[in-house]
Amino acid sequence: MNIAIIGGGLSGLSTSVHIRLLAQKQNKPLPNITLFEASDRLGGVIHTETLTDDHGRTFVIDHGADMFATAPSAAIDLCEQLGVADQLLRPSPLGRGAMIARGNRLIPIPEGFVLMRPTKLGSMLTTPLLSLSAKLRLLQERFIARRAESVTDESVGSFVRRRLGEECLDNIVAPLVAGIYTADVDRLSMAATMKPIWDMETSDGSLAKATLRRIRTGEDSTEQASSGARYEKFRAFPNGMKQWIDTLADFTGRENIRLNTAVQSIVPLPDNRYQLNVKSDIDGQSTQEFDQVVVSTPAHVAATLLQPLSEEAASTLRSIPFASTAIVVMAVRRECISRLPTTFGFVVPPKENRRVLAGSFASTKFPQRAPDDYVIVRAFVGGVMQPEILDSSDNEIIDIVRTELGDLIGLDQTQPLEDITAMVKVVRWNDAMPQYEVGHLDKVQRIRTALASLEGLHLNTNALGGVGIAPVIAASKRTAERILK
After folding, report:
1. pLDDT, mean of residues 423-444
2. Is residue 484 a contact partner of residue 23, using CB atoms and an 8 Å limit?
């Protein structure tokens, strides 16, 4: 069997790996896989630079995700299958947690609060992030009627207002969710992004009752010790997330990967086979035939490839909105941050009208990332709520972030930036984050239905099945299973 995988990001690479693993498990001949990547590197939005300055100091800089979740288990399971799980780093036990901006202060997220579900009532009743009336409103959650059975989706904003109250949404949930999805909570779909919590209302009638049940069964043991994110359930690679991409590429076989090679069109052939029209920087134009084709490109590229095959699939795919973001990465002398938080990072509520969405301290999470006297700060800007910032130049964005970090963590504003940093970098991700808005699952179903008649053609993209590393890998495994069924 000859299989083409179009796109060398996480979706494409993990699909290739799962195909090979599944073939081995089923004692089938290994398929011939050819992976096409239009750019000169693999990994898509996952990339790492290891930089050494003139003084021999080394910094490991992730351009996108710097760790992955072990729950759901798809990513850690794949690490175990590939024999690399024992190499993984756990986040430092010191500093696990996050903070929320309030004015020029950073206030800890209440212990046991994860996304939109409090698992420790005491911490919620003492947090300065909520007023007395908001705390009383929170206590009423168990008495709020569950949604009508006819309601199949709802925005995150609507759900949290209804169950937890406006203030809890504005001061805690909105910044946490925006930090993950760079999204507008009043457009983001509960059913598509927060299904486990969405289902708790269905099964238990309230989040409080669901939480009590989970505490009794021990399911919330990790959540009760967390603040904002369950850091115990995250892992990273010693040399950054590019090490994961390299592992997947090595298992795929470098000889099967074609960099700088763009697939320009997909042409159906008799017997459910496909011809790819390909353009390579080295070999020029060519055509190749395959039994199975997996499209794992960004959504806009996938839509163009699918247009001649299914207008419905292409147009629906184009209707999924995307957000752009930029990350300013600084390696800052520790002594030049007067109020460095002890936690892994912070998020900023939209109501604060600041120009940063969030910040994280990569070298606090993973001390191996930088020398002890430096801190790697990553600040996020843009997203759905402030796209205009991305029209600014890199230097302007750096100035914006520097000013904001001065307010929030006491970053030195008196010295030239080059005197207090070993490196500064702006990483832009344009149209990289799909927005799972209300009704997203209906769009996904329309796309899948439209492509169902095209046997041997598979669409695997983060615009459909999940934006995190683990969901992407899980979707890739399902694609591999369909191919080798």
Report:
1. 95
2. yes
**Alpha-carbon gap, residue 339 to 408, rounded angstroms:** 8
Q: Which of 346, 88, 120, 127 is nearest to 232 (CA)?
A: 88
In this structure, what token pair is assigned to residue 221? 């043991």
Identify the three-state secondary structure at position 482: helix
pLDDT in tens, 254-300: 999 999 999 999 999 988 899 999 999 888 999 999 999 999 999 99
Tokens of 89: 């780093």
pTM of the model: 0.92
Q: Which residues of 335-364 are buried (b: 16+ CB within 10 A; e: fewer)?
A: ebbeebbebbbbbbbbebebbbbbbbbbbb
CA distance 152 to 136: 29
Helix segments in 297-393, DSSP class H:
299-306, 311-318, 362-365
Q: How many CB atoms lie within 10 A of CB 403?
A: 15
What span, in angstroms and rounded, lies between the C-alpha atoms of 110 and 120? 8
Phi-psi region of 458 (alpha: psi -120 to 50; beta: other; left: phi over 0): beta
**Residue 28, burial from CB neighbour count under 10 angstroms (0-12, 13-18, 19+):** exposed
Give tens-digit pLDDT for 36-54: 999 999 999 999 999 998 8
User: How far is 109 from 112, CA to CA, in rounded Å?
Assistant: 9
CA dihedral 208, 211, 216, 221 (to 10 degrees): -140
Angstrom distances, CA of residue 217 to CA of 17, 71, 153, 205, 207? 36, 18, 28, 18, 15
Q: Any idea what DSSP says for residue 205?
A: S
- Say what the pLDDT of residue 16 is: 98
Paired sense of beta strands 105-108 and 98-102, if any: antiparallel
pLDDT of residue 179: 81
Alpha helix ranges (H) inside 64-130: 74-81, 121-126
CB-neighbour burial class of residue 410 (10 A; exposed 0-12, middle 13-18, buried 19+): middle
Is there a contact between 101 and 346 (Cβ–Cβ < 8 Å)?
Answer: yes
Q: Name the pLDDT band for 228 (thresholds 50, 70, 90).
A: very low
Take residue 253 and report the two structure tokens written for it.
């076989």
Domains detected in the chain: 2-40+259-320+436-484 (3.50.50.60), 48-73+87-94+322-434 (3.90.660.20), 110-146+153-225 (1.10.3110.10)
Give how far the C-alpha of residue 140 lies from the chain's centroid of Cα atoms, to the nearest Å.
33
The region that residue 331 occupies, defined by phi over 0 for left and psi between -120 and 50 for alpha, beta otherwise, is beta
226 has a pLDDT exceeding 60: no
- The answer on pLDDT for 423 being more than 70 is yes
- Specify the pLDDT at position 232: 81
**8 A C-beta contact, residue 376 and residue 362:** yes
